[in-house]
Amino acid sequence: MVDQLPNLGREEEMLVEMGVESIDALFADVPESVRMVADLPLPEAQSEEELLADAKRLLGANLALGDQPSFLGAGLYRNFVPSSVFQLVTRGEFLTSYTPYQPEVSQGMLQAMWEFQSLISELIEMPITNLSLYDGSTAAAEALTCAVRVHNRKAEQKDTVYISELTPPDRVSVIHNYCQGAGIEIKTLRHDENGCINLNDAERARGSCAVYVEQPNPIGVVDDGYPSLKEIIGDNTALIVGIQPISLGLLEAPGNYGADIVVGEGQPLGSPITGGGPIYGIFGCTKPYLRLMPGRIVGRSIDVDGKEAYCLTLSTREQHIRRHRATSNICTNETLIALMGAMHMSLLGPEGLEHLAIRNMAACTQLERQIKTIDSISLPYEQQSHFNEFVVELPATTSSCLSFLENQGVVGGFDVSNWYPEKTNQMLLTVTDQTSQKDIDRLVQSLSMWVEEVKA
């Protein structure tokens, strides 16, 4: 057996080499109040069989998302991913691949990533797409800083960007972290009581560097005001739209209504929900942003023999090796997870993606229809269109409702007060293609029981 502590027994020799008198002297900077002096509370040594039995017991305490009805979304979504995606992605040439700096030995991976770019470009109707970013939040933040680099010289509101007031706080936090160091001011755009953006208020953003909105928006509303935004804010202000990729099987692609940059969380395509990660961000743009966009780009060219060849292109070396001169703090990507997205899209095709989107929206429509039958529960944005999630208003706190549902073996929706503290009795319900009629019936039955208990 390999010795995992090769210097065990040589402590005195090492202390002499370091010029330290004792172990206590070595750790003198650590306050005594936080030092652990007792033995570690470890069990006796176990055999491999005993360890495996213990591991199975501990893992058995977990519940997989598919083990009970779940209506929790708010950014991550559980769609069916074909088994072939997981089989293909475990091939050694994909699983161990990192940055293909040497195109002569990386043509397969480079072509796969070029196909990913092509598929995303077609999905969002943008001429240029990169190899992915870390997640949807970093993609949004990178888009805003990219827009400032492009527009700031001519902007009337210099170093200023606008974001929807509904943008989730976790995403706002990432955006703030990116903008504060660059001296970029973040302002918010109001939404009306119906959940849609206030187009009159959007006029304030004219002359700024960028406007960021999400479609569908964070409370599930498909905002029909967004197609008018570009005309309102003008050509010298970037319109940045965050998308849910599955929704584009039915909804209009942002590139068709004037978006300059399109970003989003790619997880619903190809990646399961694995405790929040790993996931990948989508980033596409029009030509004016090409040279200043973050991440990496694969290009298709012709080699000296006249054959098709793929290589990393356009991004500067400073992005990789001279960080103080970089246009972005991200010089890498989520290659493996993005590849899973490309495989998923390839297997679906345009008609398959449309069918997947229809299944999501159909489940949402059915859940809305049945929720309306429950006395004392209302839909504050009932008059608006939704894709796969919507808000309900409850007769008591969302936290009490979620506790009740958990006891009934149902994972409830998202407590909206986590985003907007004043909304203590609102819950965001999410469905996907994995939501069955039986799941919907179970939720409606459980909510009805909770309402009766609240009334009592």
Structure, described:
With 456 residues, this protein is of the alpha/beta class. The chain has 2 domains: 66-79 and 349-455, Alpha-Beta Complex (Aspartate Aminotransferase, domain 1), CATH 3.90.1150.10; 83-344, 3-Layer(aba) Sandwich (Aspartate Aminotransferase, domain 2). Helix content is 36%, strand content 13%. The protein is built from 14 helices and 14 strands. It has helices at residues 11-18, 23-26, 48-59, 83-89, 92-95, 107-124, 136-151, 169-182, 199-202, 229-233, 318-321, 335-371, 398-407, 437-455; strands spanning 128-129, 160-164, 185-189, 210-215, 221-222, 238-243, 261-265, 281-285, 298-302, 308-312, 385-386, 389-393, 414-415, 426-430. The strands form 4 sheets. The protein has a 7-stranded mixed β-sheet, sandwiched between helices. It has a 3-stranded antiparallel β-sheet with strand order 12-14-13, covered by helices on one side. A two-stranded antiparallel ribbon has the order 5-11. Strand 9 (298-302) and strand 10 form a beta hairpin. Helix 6 packs parallel to helix 12 (335-371), helix 7 runs parallel beside helix 8 and helix 12 (335-371) packs across helix 14. The longest helix is centred in the last third of the chain and has 37 residues, at 335-371. The protein is globular, with a radius of gyration of 26 Å. The model has no long low-confidence stretch (mean pLDDT 92).
Write the SSE topology.
Elements lengths: L10 H8 L4 H4 L21 H12 L23 H7 L2 H4 L11 H18 L3 E2 L6 H16 L8 E5 L4 H14 L2 E5 L9 H4 L7 E6 L5 E2 L6 H5 L4 E6 L17 E5 L15 E5 L12 E5 L5 E5 L5 H4 L13 H37 L13 E2 L2 E5 L4 H10 L6 E2 L10 E5 L6 H19 L1
Parallel strand pairs: 2-3, 2-4, 4-6, 6-7
Antiparallel strand pairs: 1-8, 5-11, 7-8, 9-10, 12-14, 13-14
Helix pairs in contact: 6-12, 7-8, 12-14
